[in-house]
């Protein structure tokens, strides 16, 4: 089974989460393509999609939202999951899901969404981003919990195996 994993990542931290998810899925027997959402021209060759986005100031990246706009109807015909990356600090802030996730999930019939902690390295930020970080008093550091990412990816792998068995008509 082929899985498309488009990831909108501004500074690479969300991309690394996508790569970790792909590693778990590949170990479970799936073929996975990790790509930038802007590079996707068609999704017909994929039986499933896991769409990820970095979150800044409570919003998903424009490229991830545009991906949904382009493919929402066809995404609703296959198993889809979403993940977000962005909260930083201890405790993580901001709390809760990004504002548009509920709408995106309904548009695609997504099976689930998960928010993972992000990574904040002030040295790699543009001037405007540094200003926002200072205004929000965001704590620098790496707040990604890799065991949580791997557990979530393993759950998806189990669901995809079950979905594939039902789709092919196998009776356990």
List the helices and strands and how they pair.
Blueprint: E1 2-8, H1 13-27, E2 31-35, E3 48-56, E4 59-60, H2 62-75, E5 80-85, H3 101-108, E6 112-116, E7 119-120, H4 127-136, E8 141-142, H5 146-168
Parallel strand pairs: 1-2, 1-3, 3-5, 5-6
Antiparallel strand pairs: 3-4, 7-8
List keywords for this structure.
Rossmann fold; single chain; two-stranded antiparallel ribbon; 172 residues; 6-stranded mixed sheet; alpha/beta
Task: Tell me about this structure.
The chain is of the alpha/beta class and 172 residues long. It has one domain: 3-Layer(aba) Sandwich (Rossmann fold). The chain is built from five helices and eight strands. It has helices spanning 13-27, 62-75, 101-108, 127-136, 146-168; strands spanning 2-8, 31-35, 48-56, 59-60, 80-85, 112-116, 119-120, 141-142. The strands form two sheets. Strands 1, 2, 3, 4, 5 and 6 form a six-stranded mixed beta sheet that branches. Helix 1 (13-27) crosses helix 5.
């Amino acid at each position: 089974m082929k899985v498309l994993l488009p990831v909108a990542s501004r500074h690479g931290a969300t991309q690394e989460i996508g790569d970790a998810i792909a590693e778990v899925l590949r170990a479970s027997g799936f073929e996975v393509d990790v790509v930038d959402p802007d590079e996707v021209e068609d999704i017909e060759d994929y039986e499933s999609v896991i769409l990820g986005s970095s979150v800044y100031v409570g919003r998903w990246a424009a490229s991830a939202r545009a991906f949904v706009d382009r493919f929402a109807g066809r995404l609703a015909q296959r198993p889809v999951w979403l993940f977000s990356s962005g909260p930083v600090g201890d405790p993580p802030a901001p709390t809760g899901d990004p504002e548009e996730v509920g709408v995106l999930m309904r548009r695609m019939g997504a099976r689930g969404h998960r928010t993972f902690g992000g990574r904040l390295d002030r040295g790699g930020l543009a001037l405007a981003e540094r200003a926002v970080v200072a205004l929000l008093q965001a704590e620098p550091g790496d707040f990604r919990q890799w065991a949580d990412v791997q557990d979530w990816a393993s759950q998806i792998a189990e669901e995809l195996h079950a979905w594939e068995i039902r789709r092919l008509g196998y009776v356990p």
